[in-house]
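We emphasize that the prediction below concerns an isolated chain of 207 residues; any contacts that depend on oligomerization or on bound cofactors are therefore not represented. The input was used exactly as deposited, without trimming of termini.
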Amino acid sequence: MTQQEKQNLRRKWKRWFKKICQHISWLEWSNEVYRETNKISDWHRLLGAKRIFYDWLSQNYFVTTGMIVRMLAGEKRSSQKKYNTISFCILLKDMLNFYDSLPIKSRISKDDIEKDIERIGTISSPITTWVDKRVAHIDFQGRFNNLSVLDSDTFDQTLDNFIKLMEELFQKYNQLLQAHELCLFPLVIGDWQEPIKRAFSKKGRAK
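Result of the prediction step, given as a token string:
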């Protein structure tokens, strides 16, 4: 492989990595917003319309974050080139296949990359399996599958572990590809919680 081809590969990896980082940031932010909203809303006391809102919020949170985990952990590219599917696992596999094109390759071994791919698959498995079986498909009678099969404690623990792993691998491979550290969590200006606090104030809370 020529030096120009290696440079083209590294540029491609950097483009992929930037897109992947956007999904990791969105996953972290979604997790933060949902947890803080739970604290503010005191959901177990809600009745009527407010309870319906919480149920809707929870359902969307589980589906959205589950799909992001599935996208980041996916190991197979679409056979149709127009989709140009990427994920963290696909990026690492591509780096493994073209290992000699890695910059400063002595910093990380092939075994390390293979172990990282395995860790992503293992840690994400409860959520990706749930998404594949219950979210991404409709059953033979044309109904949506039961989304509540994966209990919330298992989901929360798996998501926490997955986010921690993504943060670790982000720093590791960002150093390799970009040679500098970045912050994944978005900078929020102002009090984003204020509208939620107002909506669930004591005056408007169900007794």
